[in-house]
Specification:
The two termini are 21 Å apart. The protein is an alpha/beta fold. The protein folds into 2 domains: 165 residues, VC0802-like; 210 residues, Rossmann fold, CATH 3.40.50. Strand 2 and strand 3 form a beta hairpin. The strands form 2 sheets. Strands 1, 2, 3, 4, 5, 6, 7, 8 and 9 form a 9-stranded mixed β-sheet that branches. The protein has a 6-stranded mixed β-sheet with strand order 14-13-10-11-12-15, sandwiched between helices. Helix 5 runs parallel beside helix 6, helix 5 crosses helix 10 and helix 7 packs antiparallel against helix 8. The protein binds adenosine-5'-triphosphate and magnesium ion (MG). The site of adenosine-5'-triphosphate has 20 residues, from helix 5 and strand 11.
Length: 391
């Protein structure tokens, strides 16, 4: 194992007394992400993390590790003997390469010397290595406060030198911030909403509503693909699949048609809360957004919200659609989300919908239904699917 990848984590380093808890989670999550590969070792020492690996799997290690939440960057290090001339030459070559490839010019050299047998102190080594770069690479200048790139020299039993950084997503280690039940539709927004909370460390479980046989197997398959894509980041995702058809039929028969959407929404929330409580989730998560569609007026959100007691997290509430799409593209869910399969909401879609529902009216319509039995029956028919990160 001749490659060393330095794992950089941002926010976790600020966690004070809890730092070690977050680090342990991150360490376990990196190991989990690399499972199935051969020829690597994840190392945690002195509040830092590294992956040692064979050159043959380095790209794969970086690609998988970069998707582990909590990591802000990964640096692949080159290895030389603990010899000042070799260190100078390697650091110079790396700096030259960066300048050639990117045109950046302001740099600094950082030295970490954990091997105290090396007979020079860090600031002196930094001065010599930096001076050598300054003299030999055209157009560069030292800037210790706002460098465009940093050449880091770590002197251990051998010396590791690195300068290029592959960016991670940041956030917090998955599984360190409670558990949420994501209402996962086939649209663009809800997978992004789930991803964002997962990035903040919240464990995600999902619930999906369909109207089979009015909605097709392919529409279901689309949801499972989205769950698989989320599992790339989280390791696994469990999806509870619930048929809403009987509920929709009942609403259709006994309630004003213009209330179809808002009433189904309230059932979805109630059902999601039921499943959430059974699975120890502490919150619901939706992709709701102010003003995108008629049901997402503040009045609509208020009426759906009042159906449940658990907090409802809506990370996209104030995002512009184009910004949500950018994230969907970045995390790999966009292409699946735009596949044109019918959604349960399109079944029984009325011509006219209430956009400013009043809670008292909606509750009155609901009193025409045997809400609890409908919910019990829907829960009784629930199916569970688990998706595990594919290697
Ligand atoms: P999305 O792109 O996530 O479908 P949207 O802009 O289409 O969102 P709506 O259809 O109003 O908005 O849905 C709002 C939210 O309600 C969704 O983000 C999702 O969290 C939840 N939701 C809607 N339909 C379903 C469904 N069939 N199963 C599970 N959750 C759903
Ligand atoms: Mg939708």
């Amino acid at each position: 194992m001749d490659k060393l990848i330095v794992v950089k984590y941002g926010e976790i380093a600020l966690k004070g007394k809890n730092r070690s808890y977050f680090e342990k989670k991150l360490f376990a999550n990196i190991k989990h992400a690399l499972m199935g590969l051969e020829g690597y070792k994840v190392i945690r020492e002195h509040g830092r993390m590294y992956v040692l690996c064979d050159g043959a799997i380095e790209d794969e290690v970086i690609e998988r590790t970069r998707k582990v939440f909590g990591i802000v960057g990964l640096c692949s290090a080159e290895k030389v003997e603990n010899d000042l001339e070799l260190i100078k030459a390697n650091a110079l070559a790396q700096a030259q390469r960066i300048v050639d490839e990117t045109g950046m010019s302001r740099f600094k050299v950082e030295v970490k010397r954990s091997n105290k047998n090396f007979d020079m102190k860090s600031p002196e080594i930094a001065r010599i290595v930096g001076g050598n770069i300054n003299q030999n690479v055209d157009g560069v200048q030292v800037d210790v406060h706002t460098p465009e790139f940093v050449v880091t020299v770590e002197i251990r039993d051998v010396t590791y030198i690195y300068s290029k950084e592959v960016k991670g997503f940041g956030g917090l280690p998955y599984g360190c911030a409670g558990k949420g039940m994501l209402l996962l539709s086939g649209g663009i927004d809800s997978p992004v909403a789930g991803w964002m909370l997962a990035k903040r460390g919240m464990e995600i479980e999902a619930v999906h509503f369909h109207s089979y046989p009015f909605t097709s197997d392919r529409a279901q398959e689309k949801i499972y693909d989205l769950a698989r894509q989320l599992a790339v980041y989280t390791g696994y995702v469990r999806v509870h699949s619930i048929n809403l058809l009987e509920i929709q039929k009942a609403i259709n028969e006994f309630c004003p048609s213009k209330e179809m959407t808002i009433l189904s929404r309230r059932f979805m929330m109630a059902l999601a809360e039921r499943v959430a409580l059974e699975t120890n989730c502490q919150a619901l998560i939706t992709g709701e957004n102010i003003g995108q569609v008629a049901s997402q007026t503040i009045e609509g959100l208020t009426v759906t919200n009042s159906r449940v007691d658990l907090p409802v997290l809506r990370p996209l509430i104030a995002f512009d659609k184009l910004d949500i799409i950018k994230i969907a593209e970045m995390i790999g869910t966009f292409e699946t989300s735009i596949l044109p399969f019918e959604d349960c909401c399109t079944v029984f879609l009325p011509d006219k919908v209430v956009t400013r529902p009043v809670l008292a009216d909606i509750e009155k319509s609901e009193s025409n239904l045997d809400v609890e039995s409908l919910i019990d029956a829907a829960i009784a028919g629930k199916e569970i699917f688990t998706f595990i990160r594919e290697k």
